[in-house]
Amino acid sequence: MNPHVAALLGLEQQLRKAGSLAQLFYTLVNQTHHCVAYTQSVLLLGEELRHLEVVAASDIPTVDYTSPFVAWVERLARYWAQQDSARQLSALDAGQVSAALRLDWQDMAPEQLLWIPLRSEAQDGRILGALLLFRAAPWTEQERGIMEHLSGTMGHTVFALQRRSPFKRLLQRLRQQKTWLLLTLVLMALLWTPLRLSTLAPVEVIARDPLVISAPLNGAVTQVTVAPNQWVQAGETLVQFEHTELASEHEIAQQALLVAQAELKTVQQSGFMDPTQKARLAELESQVSLRQAELRHAGSRLEKATLTAPGAGIAVLGDPNEWKGRPVKIGERIMLLADPKAVELEIMLAVKDSIALQPGAEVKVFFDNDPLSAWPASIHHAGYEPQRTPDNQVAYRLVARLGGEQDDAALPRIGTRGTAKVYGERVSLFFYLFRRPITSARQWLGW
């Protein structure tokens, strides 16, 4: 068999066996020398010779795009791609290019170049790229004929493997100017798509209109007699205060009343014998009334040492042991008595995430113990001034109420926490995405 024919058939067989674009590129730039002799080979891809980019070069494993040679080859290929003869196989030298390219040619590559466009007949002759062969000797007609035949085979193999790599083909299409224009128009249309503005904030289930149990006097707590979430009946003891001093005051007031009553009785009896004693009756009667009032006051304080429930509900408080021996002042809150069927949601919306809200705004709540279920709710009222939260953040306090018909047994427990998604007004996608950057820019620029 003719050695040229054998080399041609061997190269075509290797091209058919290529399983990836990387393997195909290596074969094109390194194995083509079995058919024609060359010093340097470079493969560039770009549909219809637009945006040509070096993807492989002979004798090197990877392409270094910072290399002066690669940059010069891409400039040379893009220059020749604009010529009328670029769609045909061409042999050219330094005298057929621009002065800038000609100046670098003698330092970059041999002076003879064979330009081989890779044509895909399966796509009606679409050109997928070009193979550049450099050497010092001119190209013969026989060599040009061989590469004319191989150009179709090479173009078809590139087309076949590119179909197996749709993402790379898509990237090449995106480089086309018309595609970019179309994508820009689509993106601008999408940015004006209306959607509802929303934000996320932590939420906690709280009692609605609870009974506040506060300290009725100044003193120290001896014991809290109920546990958290315990059901309490009206009149049941909740808190016991230290009452030793109060009991002593009551005993002293009682003894003082007995003394005043005895003195009054003595004067009343002696008034029959000594008329001068009658003048003291009014004074002693006032003393008895005063001692009686002091006794009632001491008795009332002693009764308050035992704090009882004014109504029924569950006890909402922290650790009862933390209250033992703790001094309290009048009005200091100790616990709440709440109806488990009357609950609402407290949402702490951070100032940086705040959006314009109206009463009745929609809310979706996702509790931590059931993150897959969304509870519908609506804003009942919102605070006008932000307040500092326990985690040292500034936030607006929102109160929401669950919507729809809810089963009392399925209501969330008081104290349950989660995340609330609060919905605001409709805005464009552009404002939705760039709301925070715009806010930061205005705060920084001051306009």
Secondary-structure arrangement, i.e. CATH architecture of the largest domain: 2-Layer Sandwich
Side-by-side strand order of the widest sheet: 6-15-19-17-16-20
**Quick one: how many beta strands?**
20
Helix/strand structural class: alpha+beta
CA(first)-CA(last) distance: 83 Å
Please indicate the percent range of residues in DSSP E strands (runs of 2 or more): 25-35%
Predict the CATH topology of the largest domain: Beta-Lactamase
Number of helices: 10
Please summarize the sheet with the most strands: 6 strands, antiparallel, barrel
- Radius of gyration over alpha carbons? 47 Å
Order of helices and strands: HHEEHEHEEHHHEEEEEHHEEEEEEEEEEH
The CATH superfamily of the largest domain bears the name GAF domain
Measured as a percent range, the helix fraction is: 25-40%
> How many domains comprise the coordinates?
4
The best one-word shape is rod-shaped
